[in-house]
Amino acid sequence: MTQQPASRIIHINGWPGTGKLTVGRLLAKRLGARLIDNHMLLNPAEALFSRSDPLHASLRGQIRQAVFDHAVRADPAESFVFTDALSDDAQDAATFSWYRDLAAARGADLVAILLDCAPEENARRLVSPGRSEALKLTDIAVLQRLRANHRLLRGLAERTVEIDTTGLLPEQTTARILGDIGV
């Protein structure tokens, strides 16, 4: 039997509305891990500045830096589940390097989880109750542009699990992930 790493860094990537946070909560609970949702890093900047304001990107960067600096120093046995919406551009690939660096610094196993669903289902989920109050994307036209002009970032981790969540309940998606990572 192979020895499990002291901790895991699980990165859940997907378009807005694919179930990242819901699955992330379930996964973190099941693993006894800490959940760092991308909106924890994004919402302070969203609340203060428009995305076109340079201070928005500056604040996001400072928050990310502080969170990752502290996560490196967390208890070595602690695992983390992160959520994100990264596409196949150079800036998002550079953002993913933060997760690789964190895993390396902690001696942790990095697992990339890619969640996607059919575009119609994605649009339906995007306008679910509570999303706008959480400062989450609810504009279907923006989602459609993202999906038309980008692909989800993939292939940058040694281990990647891809799941189509279209017909799955969050509990089923979580069970698949746990099975794929050997829990």
Description of the molecule:
One of its GO terms (molecular function) is kinase activity. It comes from Rhizobium leguminosarum. By secondary structure, this protein is α/β, with parallel strands linked by helices. It has one domain (8-177): Rossmann fold (3-Layer(aba) Sandwich). The chain has seven helices and five strands, in the order βαβααβαβααβα. It has helices at residues 20-31, 38-48, 54-72, 90-106, 119-126, 140-149, 170-180; strands at residues 8-14, 34-36, 80-84, 109-116, 159-164. The chain has a five-stranded parallel β-sheet with strand order 2-3-1-4-5. Helix 1 (20-31) crosses helix 7 (170-180) and helix 2 (38-48) runs antiparallel to helix 3 (54-72). The longest helix has 19 residues, at 54-72. The radius of gyration is 16 Å and the shape is globular. The mean pLDDT is 92.
